[in-house]
Design brief:
heterodimer; A: alpha+beta; Alpha-Beta Plaits; 2 domains; about 20% helix; B: alpha+beta; ten-stranded mixed beta sheet; six-stranded mixed beta sheet; 8 helices; about 30% strand; globular
């Protein structure tokens, strides 16, 4: 299974090689979507965990035992269909092509699985149609 | 081939053939220009894009005792009150002033004249605060109320510059993000923004303004409007390709229309971060198929129209032009500038532009929208005069 979670590291856990431990000890592939980690600061990593359901559960328990907060309520981009005018300005700042224009109709389409929640589209939107759900 | 009167007559009888610009281009590819000209009576074109040089004229009606408004704010946005006693002009690009409302500073900053115009058209109430001069005939000096479009006399858009015939492409060759009227431009050629529908843009399909002139009836904000005059910065003398299309910003028109009849779907306040508010507007322009030359001009494709790529990191009037790119390249999502690939994004809503054209097509087919003859042509010889008051370039010979 695949599960997207947000990990919040306390200062003392920032040094831990998390992706390595998840892979070696739990056979869980950790695809880092977005990370903000610096020495001596609280770190935040949005990560997609790929593995067996039991292994992901065990990995989650282990992370929590290390004081790492595991939240499955990850931030997501939402687009208000009512206010969107399909101008496409957001497609130029989206680094992962999650926001694109359909080649024929030029209607805006959002591919959630490609979104890394960088949020650059939010202030770019001229009609305030993009927001995060958190 | 046909006169405007004949086309109107056919449309009235429900026998006219109307296609949108997109449909006409497809038809031309299928059966060629002569047959398309035989088949089609009128073409519905449309655009939906930010048009900052727009605004509304409002007449409040007289208060008792009367007031001669000299300063006025609508939802905190200053409106010009230097004309008749209770006449106002609200510019789409006017920013709200912070001290007038209780809302947080950031919210206030992101609202402007365009949003107030949208609110009024949508029937929402708008707060008005004003001060007057105090004269013998207008003794009152302050006034505060809430208005709606129903509680005022005239409320019409009068837009000094709309429907740009082609535009530029913005890019940022510098090392910091820039916030522009084309939206954010990321450093080191991070993205490029274009702001014209290209081959689907109304005036690019009538390059020499044969069909559109002063008095032409158009669809403005979902209601009937008219071409009032040449637009500001109207520059028909822009360099042109052999197919007649200009290689950069060229003709513009001033538009007028009754805002009370407009649909908020086609009149949208918008805001460009760290630049300011504006107004996104839907405009539909019908083109009568008078002869084959009309269809010939409408055969122009995105491959045949170019726009200049300009570097916004040089904040001068004349910005360096990297290259000319075609709208086919721009719409593909990627152009090449200085040998490197750059993502492109439009600012014109190509999707809603087509919806405007479809709306106009339906009205034409239903006989609800008659084409009009222009009462005067738009000038074809306007130069583009720069403002160089201090440089002594004025020639005394002429």
């Amino acid at each position: 299974m695949k599960k997207r979670v947000t990990l919040t590291f306390p200062k003392h856990a920032v040094q831990m090689p998390i992706a390595y431990r998840l892979a070696k000890d739990f056979n869980v592939a950790a695809n880092i979507i977005r990370a903000q980690v610096a020495p001596n600061q609280v770190g935040k990593v949005v990560v997609e965990l790929l593995g067996d359901i039991d292994e992901i559960e065990a990995a989650t328990e282990w992370l929590e035992s290390k004081d790492i907060d595991v939240s499955s309520a990850s931030r997501e981009i939402t687009i208000n269909e009512e206010s969107c005018v399909h101008c496409g300005l957001c497609t130029g700042v989206c680094p992962t092509q999650a926001l694109t224009l359909q080649p024929e109709t030029f209607k805006l389409q959002f591919t959630r699985s490609r979104c890394v929640v960088c949020e650059q589209c939010i202030p770019t939107c001229p009609v305030d149609a993009i927001s995060t759900n958190l | 081939m046909r006169s405007i009167a004949e086309i109107n007559d056919k449309l009235q009888r429900g026998q006219g053939t109307v296609l949108t610009l997109r449909e006409v281009k497809a038809r031309i590819r299928e059966v060629g220009i002569p047959q398309t000209a035989q088949e089609v009576d009128a073409i519905a074109t449309g655009t939906f894009e930010p048009m900052e040089s727009s605004g509304a004229t409002l007449n409040l009606g007289h208060t008792d005792p009367p007031i001669k408004l000299r300063r006025c704010w609508l939802d905190g946005v200053p409106a010009y009150a230097g004309g008749g006693a209770v006449d106002l002009y609200l510019g789409a690009g006017q920013m709200a002033e912070r001290d007038d409302t209780d809302s947080p500073a950031e919210d206030t900053q992101e609202r402007g004249g365009g949003h107030v115009i949208e609110d009024l058209i949508a029937g929402r109430p708008v707060h008005l605060r004003a001060t007057g001069q105090g004269t013998d005939c207008y003794p009152r000096t302050t006034f505060e109320t809430t208005i709606t479009k129903e509680s005022i006399n005239q409320f019409y858009l009068f837009n000094p510059r709309n429907l740009y015939q082609n535009f530029i492409v913005g890019i940022n060759g510098g090392d910091r993000p820039l916030y522009t009227y084309l939206g954010p431009l990321q450093p080191n050629f991070g993205n490029a923004v274009y702001a014209s529908g290209g081959a689907l843009s109304p005036l690019l399909n009538d390059p020499h303004l044969r069909l559109i002139g002063i008095g032409s009836r158009i669809l403005l904000g979902g209601s009937v409007g008219y071409v009032a005059w040449e637009g500001t910065q109207h520059f028909p003398l822009q360099r042109r390709l052999p197919n007649g299309t200009p290689v950069g910003p060229a003709a513009t028109v001033a538009l007028i229309g009754d805002a009370k009849q407009m649909d908020p779907r086609w009149v949208r306040g918008c805001y460009f971060r760290n630049y300011g508010p504006s107004l996104m507007l839907g405009v539909g322009v019908p083109l009568p198929v008078l002869d084959e030359a009309v269809i010939e001009a409408c055969a122009v494709a995105d491959e045949d129209i170019v726009a200049p790529v300009m570097d916004f990191s040089i904040p001068r009037r004349v910005r360096p032009v990297f290259c000319l790119v075609t709208y086919a390249q721009l719409k593909s999502g990627r152009i090449e500038v200085d040998g490197r690939p750059v993502r492109t994004a439009p600012l014109t809503s190509l999707y809603l532009s087509e919806q405007v054209a479809l709306d106009l097509k339906q009205r034409l087919l239903a006989g609800q929208f008659a084409l009009s003859e222009p009462v005067a042509p738009l000038p074809s010889d306007r130069a583009f005069i720069p403002q160089d008051s201090w440089s002594g370039q004025v020639s005394l010979d002429t």
